[in-house]
Amino acid sequence: MAERMLKFTVTPRATPEKREAEARAHDFHEIYRDFIDAKAAEQASRCSQCGVPFCQTHCPLHNNIPDWLRMTAEGRLEEAYALSQATNAMPEICGRICPQDRLCEGNCVIEQSGHGTVTIGAVERYLSDKAWEEGWVRPLAAARDRGQSVGIIGAGPAGLAAAERLREQGYAVTVYDRHDRPGGLLVYGIPGFKLEKDVVERRTRRLAEGGVEYVLGFEVGRDATLQQLRERHDAVLIATGVYKARELSVPGAGSEGVVAALDYLIASNRKGLGDTVPEFDDGRLNADGKHVVVIGGGDTAMDCVRTAIRQGATSVTCLYRRDRENMPGSDREVANAIEEGVIFEWLAAPKAVTGEALKAAGLKAARMRLGAPDASGRQSPEEIPGADFDLKADLVIKALGFDPEDLQTALEAHDLDVTRWGTVKADLRNLMTSIPGVFAAGDIVRGASLVVWAIRDGRDAADAIHRYLAAHARADALQPAE
């Protein structure tokens, strides 16, 4: 055991300094400052080097966290980065946006013993940013050309993670995406104050420089059918994610001024990237000067309320039907939102959007209480009779979650089996769909989930595709010559 470790009894937990709420609420820059070298080493030295590292077992990628923390504490930073990226295609992104409080840090042994968790995410971000600065991030190196190609539908985290791994194994890889930049929700869905876009762009650029081809502005079903992609490639991976917004089922929900969370976030991110966004410029997807109500309690809702603050909203309220302890989103994000001026109405649910069809003016809401547990074990919210209240609302943002699009219709692939929820059915042993040679990974299989799970699924799918194509190549080689 290195003498530099086990400092958790004498060194208190510390996180990177946050910019003051008053300052950060006026821009879209990331809110956390970087660790300096000494502070990163100090915090890494708090790791207890557990015999059974719960941080690692609760990381979807099973990152070797204790070892790279030890290397960081010892000053072996390049080795630490190499180990961290061995299991993670995007460590600097996960270090920024993973809900560590629910995953690695939330299961840290010293956290459970009352000493405060190791700041794993901050050290991961520090290592990765240091690697880019020092040139330790090596170009993507492809193995010997296998003469086989893979088409990937979707340039989000699952598709990009799969593309990297397949290219390293020697396959020609083409990634198709409907947007005009690769990155998916990393670019268009997550605000810059959590993930600045140059962090994503340098990863996608590395893939392009390593031979991954992007075909952008390309929508499968409109520009080509799934069958046509199958004819172009030896295997196809569906990694489209889930984008269809769940609807708000109350009177007035169709009024102008009631918008989907993803439409709102995409408009904001595009504007930040310098694009022309008519819906933002004419005010439809811009919170400036408005009373904003966001309905929902997940991380997307937190992204929306914090974006509205930065756009200059007059007031921002988050309406959630359960209490804070039962919110699905990160408690860290809730705390950041409160610091920045967001008002939370816990145990409250919408009853109607008031105003006119052409202009929302407010929201009527009901007070709720938690009743008996539902099928999942969570207490079901129930309305308190006679406890309605009103909120001003020029802009109502629906952040109620996402469902899959109708891929059978969109891809013109009616032989593609889907579940009753609309997600793609994939064999859990190899991630192959009902169509031979067509695989699926990420949210389109598991439902709306975390970026880190999408990366894990993309890597698993790449390995499954490799086994499939290698087996077919061997079978072809054994065929007698004609």
Automatic annotation (TrEMBL):
GO terms for molecular function: 4 iron, 4 sulfur cluster binding; metal ion binding; oxidoreductase activity. The keyword RNA-binding does not apply. NCBIfam families: gltD_gamma_fam (TIGR01318). Residues 24-135 form the Dihydroprymidine dehydrogenase domain. This is NAD(P)-dependent oxidoreductase. Residues 150-458 form the FAD/NAD(P)-binding domain. Keywords: 4Fe-4S, Iron, Iron-sulfur, Metal-binding, Oxidoreductase. Pfam families: Fer4_20 (PF14691), Pyr_redox_2 (PF07992). SUPFAM superfamilies: alpha-helical ferredoxin, Nucleotide-binding domain.
